[in-house]
Design a protein that fits this description.
The chain is mainly β. 0% of the residues lie in helices and 53% in strands. The protein has a single domain, classed as Thrombin, subunit H, CATH 2.40.10. Strands 1-2-3-4 form a four-stranded antiparallel sheet, with no helix packed on it.
């Protein structure tokens, strides 16, 4: 296990592992209900949004994947030039902060911190 996070409503917890999979577990039954398999490298970071509707996860792959927890479908990928070390949702809004080992314009290692946000329409 590389990373574990609990959903804000206590229904699920997610485990990111060295085999590149993120598994979603039902807290009450302790059963794996879904597996997210978009990554090819060991999972470095996992985070649920404030409602528990979305999960974001990243590794050394060139993207951060955001998926719908209920369907398991990827809804968006944020392109990255290098490994991401941390993703964390805002506690009230669909804003995702992420930090990693990005590259500058000369392809030298340079730390990066960015915020990604989107709106949901009901």
């Amino acid at each position: 296990m590389m990373q574990a996070k609990k959903c804000s409503d206590d229904r699920y917890f997610a485990v990111g592992s060295a085999d590149s999979l993120v598994s979603l577990w039902n807290v009450k039954e302790l059963l794996c209900t879904k597996t997210f398999s978009k990554l090819e490298w060991p999972v470095r970071t996992v985070s649920f949004n404030h409602t528990g509707e979305f999960i974001a996860y990243a590794s050394e792959d060139p993207f951060i994947d955001i998926a719908n927890v209920q369907t398991g479908r990827s809804i968006h990928q944020i392109p990255c030039k290098a490994a991401m070390n941390s993703v964390e949702w805002n506690p009230k809004y669909n804003l995702l902060a992420y930090a990693g080992d990005d590259k500058n314009k000369y392809q030298a290692d340079e730390g990066v911190f960015r915020i990604f946000g989107f709106e949901t329409h009901n």
